Amino acid sequence: MNWRQKVLDEIDARQEELLELCSKFIQFPTENPPGDSRDISDFIIEYLAKSGIGTTVHAATPEMLNLVSTYKGSGRTGSGKKLIFCGHTDVVPAGDLDRWDFDPFCGEIRDGYLLGRGASDMKAGLAGVLFAASLLAKLGVPLGGDLTLLVVPDEETGGHLGVPWVLERGLVEGTAAVIAEPSGPLNPTIGQKGSCWFEFTVEGTPGHGSLSPVVGESAIVKAAKGIEALQRLWDIEPNIPEEVKSIIAISQQYAKEREPEGLAYQVFDHVSVNIGTIQGGTKVNVVADRCTVQVDSRVPFGVDYRQVMDRAGSLLLEAGIETDIKPFGFQGNANWTPPEEPVVKHLVDSISEVSGEEAYGVLQWASSDARHFRTHNIPVLQYGPAELSTIHSFNEKAPVWQIIRSAKVYALTALKYLGVEETPNA
Hints:
Helix 9 packs across helix 11 (about 400-420). With about 425 residues, the chain is α/β, with parallel strands linked by helices. The strands form four sheets. It has a six-stranded mixed β-sheet. It has a four-stranded antiparallel β-sheet with strand order 10-11-9-12. It has helices spanning about 5-15, 15-25, 40-50, 120-140, 165-170, 220-230, 240-260, 305-320, 340-355, 370-375, 400-420, and strands at about 55-60, 65-70, 80-90, 110, 115, 145-150, 175-180, 190, 195-205, 270-280, 290-300, 325-330, 335, 360-365, 380, 395-400. The longest helix is centred in the first third of the chain and has 21 residues, at about 120-140. The chain has two domains: about 5-190 and about 335-420, Aminopeptidase, CATH 3.40.630.10; about 195-255 and about 260-330, Alpha-Beta Plaits (2-Layer Sandwich), CATH 3.30.70.
């Protein structure tokens, strides 16, 4: 049997089932915070059970459930390969409902789009990997290795109770992974910049607001000088390794073509600096005695995130601010999976096979759970359906054609990477 064609034909025939699954996922309001995956997890467990795939539940908290579900292969032609399909169930909060043109949890299909919070990030992708694995099981495809679904409840707030929690405890095994995070339709993400989040607190001297700046010393004014100084983190010169210069150039060109009026291509080889929050002062007519600033910095290849921390401290001192730099949240260096890795080659080939167009991997300037897989020496890349401009925004949506294409790519990647056993009736 030609399993590839059989699977592609079945996905075409069962498109409505896939879209119905996507819609159902949107209708679970899994905003994080607060974060509660119990209802959607029960639904997923039941859905997979109908195709004969069992699930083990690993609760990081009573509300945060990590699911591990495996469709077992023979292990012969796969030579011990174990492929992980990964996705998260949580979504960012919908925000001001009056600014949506539709109910963010409607899950409607309208004018060729799936509508709702999480449509692009990443419930359509999650539905795609679950649908593909379930279909392979229902058809009884004799895979040569194991296909495991890892569904995690925590990614949007840093993911500490999701992928890293599972991997650190050895609760899942894999020789490669695909995360169904949003990407370009022809361009999976094979690497990402590092992260360096930190905060600093400035002390001032309070006084009556009517006497400022003669009396008192405003912590907010001092912090503003530090904020201005930190913009010079952009000027750190990266010592870019030879092996990633090519993929950086490819990614810069990709960014220019995708955003012809934008400037995003510049951040691939620079340290970015975002002043995310400022909290200071007690009352409008009191000179502020304290101000805390939180900074999100993204780190390119060739720069260590600890180097960024050190430079930030030096810049603040030069601005006359003596304070402790405190790291929090994302901390880590740039990382990638080379295009030569089998799982990358198979997924890229699958995109080209389904689309009839050239596909290739690129870097992203943000971060994701991919870094955790790489920390555990598991080659990984990201690919999923999305209307990228709507992610984390109002009126989030995802194109139906991308949802269907992605499901085909997931299924073909599993067939190619794990291999298929020949059977007497094949």
